[in-house]
Amino acid sequence: MNLNPKTVGDVLILQPSEKITMANCEQLRDQFLEYVKKGRRKLALDLSHVDYMDSAGLAALVEIVKIGLSDHLRLRFFAIQSQVRSLMEVAHLHDVFPLAESEAEALEALQKDA
């Protein structure tokens, strides 16, 4: 899975460019962990190109949130497509994820969290 990383200030933005499913969710989690191991403390996931996610993909995002909490990371998910947001709501997890509407809002929140 290509996460199309880009850095804005001290924030690493990862932008998966495909569906997040059982077939690739471990890659997403493993790549996220690699960035954490390299010392990244502020991360944002741009989900604007993720138009589908299955329950395994959602579980991978939950794992990312758990990693973020245990490692004291600053984390935001933003630009979430309606299908993915609906899945989060159906699973009653939309309040678990640190969400932002846009990249600008995510960056602002990550700077305030510092």
The parts where pLDDT drops under 50 for at least 5 residues are none
CATH class categorisation:
Alpha Beta
Per DSSP, the total helix count is 4
Q: List the secondary-structure elements in sequence, H or E.
A: EEHEHEHEH
The largest pleated sheet is described as: 5 strands, mixed
CATH superfamily: STAS domain
Describe this structure in words.
The chain has 4 helices and 5 strands, in the order ββαβαβαβα. By secondary structure, it is α/β, with parallel strands linked by helices. Helix 1 (25-37) runs parallel beside helix 2. The protein has helices at residues 25-37, 55-70, 82-90, 103-112; strands spanning 6-8, 11-14, 42-46, 74-78, 99-100. The protein has one domain (6-105): STAS domain (Transcription Regulator spoIIAA). Strands 1-2-3-4-5 form a 5-stranded mixed beta sheet.
